Amino acid sequence: MNGKHRTLGATKPRALGLLVAVALVVGACNASASPSSPASQAPAPSTAASASLAPAITPVPLPPNAPGPNGGTVVSWFVGLGAGGQPQQLAAEANFVDAFNKSQKDVYISLEIYNNNVAGSILKTQIAAGNAPDIIGPVGVEGLNLFRDQLLDLAPLIAKTGYSVPGVDPKLVDFFKLGENNATVGVPFATYPSFLYFNKDLFDEAKLPYPPTKVGELYQGKPWDMAALRELGMKLTVDKNGNDATSPSFDPNSVEQWGFDMQYADNSPLAETSLFGASSFLAADGKTAQIPDPVSIGEKWYNDGVWKDHFIPSASQINSDLLDKGNEFESGNLAMNESHSWFTCCIYPAAPAKPKIKQFGFAIAPSYNGTITAKLHADTFSLLKTTKVPDAAFKAMTALVGSGELLTLYGAFPANPAQQDAFFKATEANFPGVKLDWSVPQAMLAYPDIPNHQSWVPNYAKAKSAWQAFQNKYRSTAGTDIDAELATLKTTLQGIFDETAP
Amino acid sequence: MTDATESNVVPIAEIGGPRWHSTQSRRETMWGFVFIGPWLIGLVLLTAGPMIASLVLSLTDFDLVHPEAVRFVGLDNYVRMASDPNVIKSLLVTFRFAIIAIPLTTFASLGFALLLNSSKLVGRNIFRTLVYMPVQIPLVASTLVWIGFLNTQTGWLNHILGFLGLPGPDWINSETWIYPALALIGLWGIGNFMLINLAGLQSVPTELYEAARIDGAGAGTMFRRITIPLMSPILLYNLVISLVVTFQYFTQAYTMTNGRGDPNNATLFINLDLYREAFVFNRMGYAAAIAWLLFVIVMALTLGLFAFARKRVYYAGGDR
Predict the structure, then answer these.
(1) What are A244's strand-pairing partners?
(2) Segment A303-347, tens digit of pLDDT
(3) Distance between CA atoms of B105 and B192, rounded to whole angstroms?
(4) Which residues are bridge partners to A289 per DSSP?
(5) Greater model confidence, B10 or B86
(6) β-strands A413-414, A255-261: how paired?
(7) Residue ranges per domain, chain B?
């Protein structure tokens, strides 16, 4: 008996210890992760998450396969992958859907809207659960890439219905042949040409003329190209003693104003170097990784701009208070920024803060080797392959594409020239006293980057994380050997592409 | 009367008898289950269920966007991890950070607890509140504040270092300095561990110190011979929790780099890699396998700690 007791006694602590260990591990695994606090900080991230996970508008529950309340075929419209998930946009979208559903009896749109930061994950979950929507959008090229093989080829529906967007450049129609085997996965809706935004006050202070607003115009008697941009950028870069970057007394350690950057380029070398020409990391054979010349040449230009000429801010300078922790142009300390027409969103800070920029203007993108490339963003609507009602979904989609109200609501530069005036007026209303030259974005629409800087590559999301890592490295590390890093990137990308090879 | 009274008295031996014991014990067991019932249901439905599901998932190539193409792949995901540079890198990153953060957190929280337990400290409650206060701030918000504080150009820390004549490093963008930076951020929130240590310190019987003092023991000896042994279960608890949450490290790394693991994957912690595989690259099956790898590592390290602590931790109530 005693012996038995001893055995039990010896086993007990071990078993108890194991149980406690498992309980602690499982318990702690359920808690928020922080090395500094076991539990109490858990509510913070989860509260934030739950707030952002909350759908903005959920679909009205309808019996499956039954017609909608207006007697039409039910078509679900999923919003959130691009524009459309902002609180101020919800009511207008709901009103559009109501008006559409009342205006006819063939199609009933069921609207669901999610916040942009969770919409992608929700759509993936819906696809996995077999209840994917019929229409997605507005969605940009990158969003289309992430769901590329789930998108329906619209060409047969376009041919069947004879659909066309009047007045749109054929280049923009071809732009949406982004699906598998060049399938047309969208139609022109909203375009966002890119061009130079410049801070007029900083130019006036430096007594420098404004950059060109017409294609082919010279700047101070020289072609408006990347060399001119570099020189101008250096003249507009100023240290705390007021010396510009061309001065021998310039102190690169105390820069307070920078000449140029391409803000919000998503850490993409393809976006950043698009001024040197459109390119892709994917060779024409569709499976080989490459480092195209524009990237190779362009990244050396940027690397020198950050670390040698000092007119482009480094990663830590971008995140400093001097450049408003990432919103460089808004800070008033960046003279020129190459960005898209949607960037008008981010020039003035949210009220009640007062704008730091008083006067700004639009200018032509500089050329490289005589060629202008103004990278393009474009939003569209797309249908998923899983739709059981393609005809009804296409009808609803064309109604969305044709809506002027939605365009204005999304702040999108209309692809259809007839709709552009309304957009200009709506945008100018946000900048009283500022005269904007809309001929610049209109002109830049003729120089889109084809292939687009967001073009599909195999294993897109993972490939993107690799090129973003390259971009971050040179922006944060002085003396980066660009050629060596690009060679490494090429090998990495090839490995990533090969992961999805059949 | 006496007889009657005597006949009503239940013999003591009968109360403690086997039948009474068995009924009482069954009743206690039943009530025990009633009380832990909600937790048990939660454990089965919300923890054990998903754990089993993730184990099954880890044996498949389940992709969120292509659910129809799911295949059983056996142990392929586990084999693949051995040669996946991201998994290897993320494990190295996590271990490197753990080596810095866990001792720092443990010693700093104990140090603060000792200071804040001192009877000589004026305004103890105010200081206790101040040390605990950062824990109340949402992690994302505090990380954003720290990003500003650590900025090379305009951050206060480098300004202070500059004032002292010391060169300030690029805390956030340097592959070397990012770990001390994250450890520093972690230190800001040691309030919980400090509080647990403080409770432990206050539970050490004062008679032991008085007796030791009479015997001529100094402060160092009392700390080594009395405080540490009696605090050892608390220290072990903090160490285990600290280990687990370090291997679960995610929010600060995600907030600082938008989930990219910058600079040069130096903040690609294993949990961040898991998240990216699952929700960015859509490879749920593979991510589930990484989750199980993480579980096994944490479990092994925890058991290792328990084994190490078996003869070094003093439990006043006896063996545990």
Answers:
(1) A238
(2) 999 999 999 999 999 999 999 989 999 999 999 999 999 898 889
(3) 11
(4) A282
(5) B86
(6) unpaired
(7) 2-57, 76-309
Mutate to test the interface with B, among A22, A37, A473, A493 (most CBs of B within 10 A): A37
Continuous H helices in A130-185: 141-146, 155-161, 170-175
Burial B49-65 (b: 16+ CB within 10 A, else e): eebeebeebbbbbbbbb
> What are the chain A neighbours of B280 within 8 Å (beta carbons)?
461-462, 465
pLDDT tens digits, one per residue of A414-459: 877 788 888 888 889 889 999 999 999 999 988 989 899 999 999 9
Say yes or no: B293 contacts chain A, CB-CB below 8 A. no
The whole-angstrom distance between B192's CA and the closest CA on chain A is 6
Q: In this complex, is the C-beta atom of B138 within 8 Å of any C-beta atom belonging to chain A?
A: yes
| pLDDT beyond 50 at A51 | no
**B67 to chain A: which residues are within 8 Å by CB?**
127-130
ipTM associated with this complex: 0.78
| Gap between the Cα atoms of A459 and A499, Å rounded | 8
Tally A–B CB contacts below 8 A. 184
Domains, chain A, ordered by start: 54-191+377-428 (3.40.190.10), 194-376+446-499 (3.40.190.10)
Q: Which of chain A's residues have a Cβ under 8 Å away from the Cβ of B193?
A: 36-38
Q: A292-303, pLDDT tens digit by residue?
A: 999 999 999 999
Phi and psi, residue A284, nearest 5°: -60, -25
Q: What is the pLDDT of residue A50?
A: 35
User: Which of B39, B76, B100, B139 to probe by mutation at the A interface, max A CB count within 10 Å?
Assistant: B139
One-letter amino acid for residue A355 of the chain: P
Residues of B in contact with A322 (CB under 8 A): 153-154
d(CA A14, CA B130): 40
Tell if the CB–CB gap between B47 and A30 is shorter than 8 Å.
yes
Interface of B with A in 41-100 (CB under 8 A): 47, 64-67, 97
For chain A, the first-to-last Cα distance in angstroms comes to: 67
How many angstroms away from the CA of A457 is the closest CA of chain B? 13
**A290 Cβ partners below 8 Å, 6+ apart?**
A280, A281, A282, A283, A490
Tokens matching residue A140: 């940009």
Q: CB A33 to CB B250 under 8 A?
A: yes
Structure tokens at A113: 């809207």
Domain spanning B76-309 has what CATH number?
1.10.3720.10
- Report the C-alpha gap between B103 and B80 in whole angstroms: 32
